[in-house]
Amino acid sequence: MADQKIQTLKLNTSFLSILVEIIKVSRPIHWVKNLSVFAALIFSRNLFVEFYWERVILAFISFSFAASATYIFNDIADAPHDRLHPTKRFRPIAARRLPILAAVATMGAFALLSLYIATNLSTLFLLSISAYLCLQALYSLGLKNLPIIDILIIAAGFVLRVYGGAFVVDAHLSVWFLLCIISVALFLASGKRRAEISSIPEGKTRVSLTKYGQELLNSYVTMFANAAWMSWALFTFFESPTPETRVWLFLAEISRTTTVSKLLMATIPIAIFGIMRYEALIFENRSETPEKLFLTDKALVGSVILWLGMVVWILYGGVTNFS
Predict the structure, then answer these.
(1) What's the pLDDT band for 125 if we cut at 50, 70, 90?
(2) DSSP 206
(3) Where are the transmembrane segments (predicted)?
């Protein structure tokens, strides 16, 4: 009887340890990137429509499962290189704490759950999830070793998230907003590479990093940072959504050049500050994991919250009830 209890305890301990490693390899902290699916909900002025909230939350869950599946697939494919990386060598698969069979089973379950949820939302959203999974699989299988292509694929993941959110609420995204999303995505991706190349000895990890020069990545970061804030400025000027309430009408009297439809331009200085802060973190070699920065850096978190709060206040001032 005692032996059976000991055996049961060992099995339970083993199961719990594997479960912990599965949670780690799934990288739930990275799900913060999937919050970008809410962009279309906000800018389509449907933020307080309960029906759309439910759909976007499901889209967020679907992308989170898909992202975790691709992280596991990438860790399996990249385990030999990760063992040479100063921090990635501690990942569950690279450190051999998670059996490959368990990792493959988890990856398959996450991918199927993601596709099942997507199937019940819309055909276009299903296509965006499928495109995301395919792109990330190709990335893990070799495209990550191609300079420039690797950055473009990372950026494409952000664009697919935003458009996935638009598909589930049947929203139109303007060309200027799309340009802004692409610019921000490229800025984050090039910043990630810039931090990696500065913190890893040459030749110790993926091939593409050995083909980038630090000055080249510096120019990418600067170029996309400028494109990001300028495209946001152009969006707020040319295609800024018009607030639906009269709470802002008094501001139009401040100046003959001020109109309600241009009030989002007030967020431009905050956007510039946020981009400047993130660029400073890039050159401090702290942007290899942007999802952590957006949760831990006080100045960056503050600028994002203030920017988002102003956007919602300008577009929805006075609206508090679900439809």
Answers:
(1) very high
(2) -
(3) 55-77, 98-118, 148-169, 175-195, 216-238, 258-278, 299-319
Q: What are the C-alpha distances in Å from 237 to residues 169, 227, 307?
A: 24, 15, 16
What value, to the nearest 5°, has the Cα angle with vertex 192 and ends 64 and 111?
A: 20
Domain limits, the chain: 19-173, 174-323
pLDDT tens-digit readout, 24-36: 899 998 898 899 9
Q: Which two tokens stand for residue 106?
A: 């988890």
**Is the per-residue pLDDT at 81 higher than 90?**
no
Q: Tens digits of per-residue pLDDT, 126-139?
A: 999 999 999 999 99
Alpha-carbon distances, residue 172 vs 39, 41, 205, 267 (angstroms): 11, 10, 41, 22
CATH of domain 19-173: 1.10.357.140
Separation between Cα atoms, residue 318 and residue 247, nearest integer Å: 7
Q: Quick check: pTM over 0.85? A: no
Closest CA to 291 of 198, 189, 147, 200: 189
Q: Is the pLDDT of residue 323 over 90?
A: no
Q: In this structure, are residues 154 and 144 in contact, taking their beta carbons and an 8 Å threshold? A: no
